[in-house]
TrEMBL record:
InterPro entries, per the entry: Ald_DH/histidinol_DH (IPR016161), Ald_DH_C (IPR016163), Ald_DH_N (IPR016162), Aldehyde_DH_dom (IPR015590), Aldehyde_DH_Superfamily (IPR050740)
Organism: Herbiconiux gentiana
Residues of the Aldehyde dehydrogenase domain: 3-443
Protein name per the record: Aldehyde dehydrogenase family protein
SUPFAM superfamilies from the UniProt entry: ALDH-like
Length: 499
């Protein structure tokens, strides 16, 4: 088997780890463990799983210093960013403990037997149950919050599903460390509820493993499409929830550009370069009006970007892809590089950049994500022109609108931008996704499933499926569907009943 190495992006130093790529036997063992853990997690019940999630969060907090140091040595994201990410990771776990205790996520419904205009109705009871063992493909850009202990894992464990995580090659040591911390909590209670597998082959085989019932992925369009196709072509296809990149358009109305163009530019620049531009919610394209107000905004944005230095990319491959992508953007007719940050001699670093485009139609390449600290400013003449440009954009996680109170400008463009997004922001910046009941993190393609979110309370819905019981004896029913007082909201004979 192949020994795994890890590289510090800040120095280029490579270390050999005491880890090997997962072979077929190791993958089968991981899936078997997730299957067994699924039964044990369900047996714990909602309150038991809630306590388990809180215990995992506490254990991660107790190892904070080691986890942050290990992650920083693999990502060069810095202690401040990584401490914040670990705090978010613990918050997600504790948040899902609250979701479990509240219970409405089960969508429990009871329709007692009775007469209807269509004739007699049998006793019917319905709720959501765990879909089964889940595959999680860790993201490169969040080694904690969207990785082994991240939101997908938290949601799956909350649902009662065991998890097999495909570690991202950018941070294998971090993945192994947090997996060991989770194991210390879970193994004594429910067995190996979270297993980690390593290597390209294991990732391909995982989505095809017969025991896996759903998969979630955050990463590149190429990798995600390949895995989605494998998931769909199984003898029994499974749901594949993928986030495959996002352009996150920003639309600035003429009135907003005139009233506060400089402040918009300052905040937009910070959002573009945050975390080295390696956020899935990075604003990748901004629609800005032509004219003096738009010129001033673009000038302020260019100046802000120019003052930002280069940062190490998560991997050398990502740095190369960024450089190639920037070359492609600036080669588009009508596009020009208008600002470049301070370069670095460090191999594998990325330098912030701003590209401006002027033209009647939006070229396809400018509507595609370039992963890193670059954005494209597209100038529009009027509402019709802005709407036409926006109509060339693909689906996106977010859309941001900067408008003034009572602003009637660019109404068609607003609609064209907003109808492509899963989250619409007003006068705020998209980098930052709150973990909340009302959150939605997803959208039309290139999200592979626009129905579900990957962040927030309802992300648990991805790992559940509905089951109805007809004329079942009380002893055969889940506790949440039996008559009598219960500790969760239910709809009984068409009426919502609170606990």
């Amino acid at each position: 088997m192949t020994t795994i190495t890890t590289t510090d992006p800040a120095t280029g130093v490579r270390r050999t780890l005491d880890l090997e790529e997962t072979d077929a036997a190791g993958l089968a063992s991981a899936v078997s463990s997730a299957t067994a853990a699924t039964a044990e997690l369900q047996a714990l019940g909602r309150s038991g799983r809630a306590r388990l999630l809180e215990a995992i969060a506490d254990a991660l907090d107790a190892r904070r210093e080691d986890i942050v140091a290990t992650a920083d040595a693999e990502t060069a994201l810095g202690a401040v960013r990584l401490n914040g990410e670990l705090t978010r990771t613990g918050y997600q776990l504790r948040f899902f403990a609250e979701v479990l205790r509240e219970g409405s996520y089960l969508e429990a419904v009871i329709d007692h037997a009775g007469d209807t205009p269509m004739g007699p109705r049998p006793d019917l009871r319905r709720m959501l149950v765990p879909i089964g063992p889940v595959a999680v493909y860790a993201a490169s850009n969040f080694p904690l919050a969207f990785s082994v202990p991240g939101g997908d894992t938290a949601a799956a464990l909350a649902a009662g599903a065991g998890v097999v995580v495909k570690a991202h090659p950018a941070h294998p040591a971090t993945s192994a460390l947090v997996a060991s911390v989770i194991a210390e909590v879970t193994d004594p209670l429910v067995g190996r509820a979270v297993s980690v597998v390593y290597g390209y082959a294991a990732g391909i085989d995982l989505v095809q493993a017969p025991g896996i019932r759903a998969a979630s992925f955050t990463g590149s369009p190429g990798g995600g499409r390949a895995l989605a196709e494998l998931a769909a072509n199984r003898p029994s296809p499974i749901p594949f929830y993928g986030e495959l990149g996002s352009i996150n358009p920003v639309l600035v109305s003429p009135a907003a550009a005139a009233a506060r163009g400089e402040s918009i530019a300052e905040g937009l620049a910070a959002s573009i370069v945050q975390g080295g531009g390696q956020f899935c919610t990075k604003p990748g394209i901004a629609l800005v009006p032509v004219g003096p107000a738009g010129d001033a905004l673009v000038g302020a944005l260019s100046a802000s970007v120019a003052h930002v230095g280069a940062k190490p990319a998560l991997t050398a491959g990502m740095a190369s892809a960024y450089d190639a992508g920037l070359d492609e953007l600036t080669a588009v007719p009508g596009a020009a590089l208008v600002s470049r940050g301070s370069a670095s001699s460090t191999i594998g670093s990325t330098t912030p950049a701003l590209v401006e485009f002027v033209g009647d139609e939006l070229p396809t390449r400018l509507a595609e994500e370039c992963f890193g600290p670059v954005a494209v400013v597209v100038r529009y003449r009027d509402d019709e022109h802005a709407a036409r440009l926006a109509s060339a954009l693909p689906g996106t996680l977010t859309a941001t609108l900067f408008i003034e109170p009572g602003d009637a400008g660019v109404p068609m463009a607003r609609v064209a931008v907003a109808e492509r997004a899963g989250r619409i922001l007003y006068d705020q910046y998209p980098t930052g996704v709150a973990v909340a009941w009302a959150q939605n993190h997803g959208g039309p393609w290139p999200s592979t499933d626009s129905v579900h979110t990957s962040v927030g309370a309802t992300s648990i819905r991805r790992y559940l499926r509905p089951v109805a019981w007809q004329n079942a004896p009380a002893a055969e029913l889940p506790p949440e569907l039996r008559d009598g007082p219960v500790d969760l909201p239910r709809r009984v004979d068409g009426v919502m009943v609170l606990p």
